[in-house]
Amino acid sequence: MGWEGWAVTERAFQVDLRGVVDLLSRHLYSSPRVYLRELLQNGVDAVTARRAGEPDAPARVHVETPEHTGDGTLRVHDTGVGLTEAQVHELLATIGRSGKRDELGYARHEFLGQFGIGLLSGFLVADEIEVTTRSAQGGPTVRWVGHADGRYRVEPAARERDEVGTTVVLRPRRDAEEWFATDTVVELARHYGALLPVELRVGDTPVTGDGPPWSRAYPTPALRRAALNDYCRSLFGFLPLDVIDLDVPEAGLRGVAFVLPHAANPTVRATHRVYLKRMLLADNVADLLPEWAFFVRCVVDAGELRPTASREALYEDDLLGHVRETLGGQVRDWLVALAESDPEALRRFLRLHHVGVKALAVHDDAMLDLVYRWLEFETSSGAMTLAEFARRHPDARYTPDVDEFRRLSAVAAAQGIGLVNAGYVYDAEIVARLADLDGGVKLLPLDPGELTTRFGILESGVELRLRDFLRAAERALDPLGCTVVLRDYAPASLPALYLTSRAAEHRAELAESRAQADPLWADVLGALEPALAADRPRLVLNHANPLTRRITTLTDPELIGLAVQALYGQALLHGRHPLRPADAAALNRSFLGLLDWAAPAEPEEHA
Ligand SMILES: Nc1ncnc2c1ncn2[C@@H]1O[C@H](COP(=O)(O)OP(=O)(O)OP(=O)(O)O)[C@@H](O)[C@H]1O
């Protein structure tokens, strides 16, 4: 069959309205409750449009619930610009057509709406939408009735409206009646519309008041702070530690950040309440601030940020990126200023939110300086700031491992080596960056192996006398891969210390993976071992300790072996080192062996 007989015609897409409504209700909007938001938004936009030409025109949106109307319908009246008959055909009956775009089709920034689909959300809760409208441009009052199946009718209204403006009427569908109860409607209107720049009422209940609490005029700063505290408490349920004013003129953004009065989980991103042109967008917007700012919750109103089509999230664009950066900067500046103006408040803040500040300090010099001067770290001389610590210990060391700090801080302190616990999140990066500070602070990592060289060497006479003891001790620990040294050190309460150097730790890991690896790989690993073999972990016996001293007086090599293995096990446990099966076995053996020495087992009697 050929194409000769075909006439090529241009056709228009057909739209199945039911499909579109289904798309909106199931996939775009998270809940049918947005119907009220869309109606309020249209009312407010119509008022905005009218006041552009008529600045003194009334700015009212009035909602009547079925309880008020008495005929089962919900009505939204506005004193907006209204629509002419031609506009009704063009705007109300064309999906995707919006009167809020300019000639080039861009959203006009003074309006909330832009997509030309909002009115359809009425079909989430009603099968019929009726609009009665009288245009500010003159002409008769027009009535438009649209149905969820796509039919619509336009006719002269039975009665002329007294005033310019529009009334939208919804008759709830059976399954949607809950969304029309007066309490629910008041709650929804407050939720979305409490800050709208019009006089909004539901029945006689006023919804809007004096606008955003952060931009109202207050007689004194103290009264403003009290009002913002109250606002925060009613919104988020906490009394803020402080309130930070936020302002990004390029995005038409103003608002406040409330500093949390309790520690927050830094892995959970704080969420913020965002209004766009005074209409609530959402109260769970996470990407308004940088991730590190988890210690504040913000409420902002922005004129120029864009919503996604669902109006439930911010559209990610360059402006949002800029806002995020600028707000991050404002929170940071507040912190720096606090260090100058109210160190006590800063300390309180840091006690709660040190993790966020540390995260900042990794990239930001001013924050690094703040951490250095104000944040207390755990050190071998107690909790203190790094600045104070560096002053006291010009040759200080740090360890990037909390367990190692616990193990070694007393020993290090007893030997005059200042040790900082840099084992928590961000600590190691911060310590490494201290050299970037003015005056360059040098903090080196501690190699635990280095500690033995600082322990007091015994007098040569003593060492000589204990030669046999040391030999027996060495033999007892050799199968466990550990060498023995005897030193004199503080604290005297410590009988022995198990020290691994970094190289020895590496070697232990190597041996472990070799034991688990296949033969070929084990050979490769084996070839690496001799290079590291020289550096074995050490059991440093403390000659200053009475128990150890008593053990050194033993002469029987077997008994020495048992006692030294007991010290070895104790040192491992004390230092929270992992116990390998061989270590646990040695510990058991030594315990039993010592028991046998103390109370030799009776030969068992056979009946
Ligand atoms: N109360 C009203 N008064 C005057 N015009 C209205 C009113 N409600 C709707 N309109 C007109 O109908 C058009 C379509 O409204 P609709 O709510 O579908 O889309 P929108 O508000 O333009 O955009 P969005 O989908 O973002 O809400 C509007 O652009 C507006 O011109």
UniProtKB/TrEMBL annotation:
<dbReference type="Pfam" id="PF13589">
    <property type="entry name" value="HATPase_c_3"/>
</dbReference>
<dbReference type="GO" id="GO:0140662">
    <property type="term" value="F:ATP-dependent protein folding chaperone"/>
</dbReference>
<keyword id="KW-0143">Chaperone</keyword>
<dbReference type="GO" id="GO:0005524">
    <property type="term" value="F:ATP binding"/>
</dbReference>
<keyword id="KW-0067">ATP-binding</keyword>
<dbReference type="Pfam" id="PF00183">
    <property type="entry name" value="HSP90"/>
</dbReference>
<dbReference type="InterPro" id="IPR020568">
    <property type="entry name" value="Ribosomal_Su5_D2-typ_SF"/>
</dbReference>
<dbReference type="InterPro" id="IPR020575">
    <property type="entry name" value="Hsp90_N"/>
</dbReference>
<feature type="binding site">
    <location>
        <position position="42"/>
    </location>
    <ligand>
        <name>ATP</name>
    </ligand>
</feature>
<dbReference type="GO" id="GO:0016887">
    <property type="term" value="F:ATP hydrolysis activity"/>
</dbReference>
<feature type="binding site">
    <location>
        <position position="38"/>
    </location>
    <ligand>
        <name>ATP</name>
    </ligand>
</feature>
<keyword id="KW-0346">Stress response</keyword>
<dbReference type="InterPro" id="IPR001404">
    <property type="entry name" value="Hsp90_fam"/>
</dbReference>
<keyword id="KW-0547">Nucleotide-binding</keyword>
<dbReference type="GO" id="GO:0051082">
    <property type="term" value="F:unfolded protein binding"/>
</dbReference>
<dbReference type="InterPro" id="IPR036890">
    <property type="entry name" value="HATPase_C_sf"/>
</dbReference>
<protein>
    <submittedName>
        <fullName>Heat shock protein 90</fullName>
    </submittedName>
</protein>
<feature type="binding site">
    <location>
        <position position="78"/>
    </location>
    <ligand>
        <name>ATP</name>
    </ligand>
</feature>
<comment type="similarity">
    <text>Belongs to the heat shock protein 90 family.</text>
</comment>
<feature type="binding site">
    <location>
        <begin position="98"/>
        <end position="99"/>
    </location>
    <ligand>
        <name>ATP</name>
    </ligand>
</feature>
<dbReference type="InterPro" id="IPR037196">
    <property type="entry name" value="HSP90_C"/>
</dbReference>
<feature type="binding site">
    <location>
        <position position="166"/>
    </location>
    <ligand>
        <name>ATP</name>
    </ligand>
</feature>
